[in-house]
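Good morning C.,

I know you're traveling, so I'll keep this short. The sequence:
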Amino acid sequence: MVPIYQLGADSPTINSVFVAPSASVIGKVTAAANSSIWFGAVLRGDADQITIGEGSNVQDNAVVHCDPGFPAIIGDHCTVGHSAIVHGCTLARGVLVGMGAIVMNGAEIGEGSIIGAGAIVTEGTKVPPFSVVLGQPGRVKKTLEPSSMADRLDQAERYIERATLFASDLTSE
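The tokens, ready to paste straight into the viewer:
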């Protein structure tokens, strides 16, 4: 059974996306082509819209949720790491949210930025493009060269390749 659920009148819109069998995609969720939603991830679009951009990946046990008036928008070629929480915020193109990081309502993460593992980006925080955010609460610790974006785009591409493999070769015993 595909773990995609309608909630009331709201059904996910999923096009050419790998969704792992133990993930849950619920309600107002739109996922663009070549994105992937991995094992144990939960995308719960009950309170507002969740949008996943082309080529983005939401890794194992991550949670994407929102509150009324705070949609969750994940841009193209983003990586949401294992056990991260992305809640009612905006990630611009090529953002990496590290394992176990939390990005809260109203936060806006600029293009090509990295949110370090375990960091907490508090409500309403605006992170400039190509920033590295670390700590609890998260603070910009470094500015990256725009050319560093190639690394994050390569990582997203590797997940597209991995998702293609899983979509064609994953079997249950």
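Safe travels,
E.
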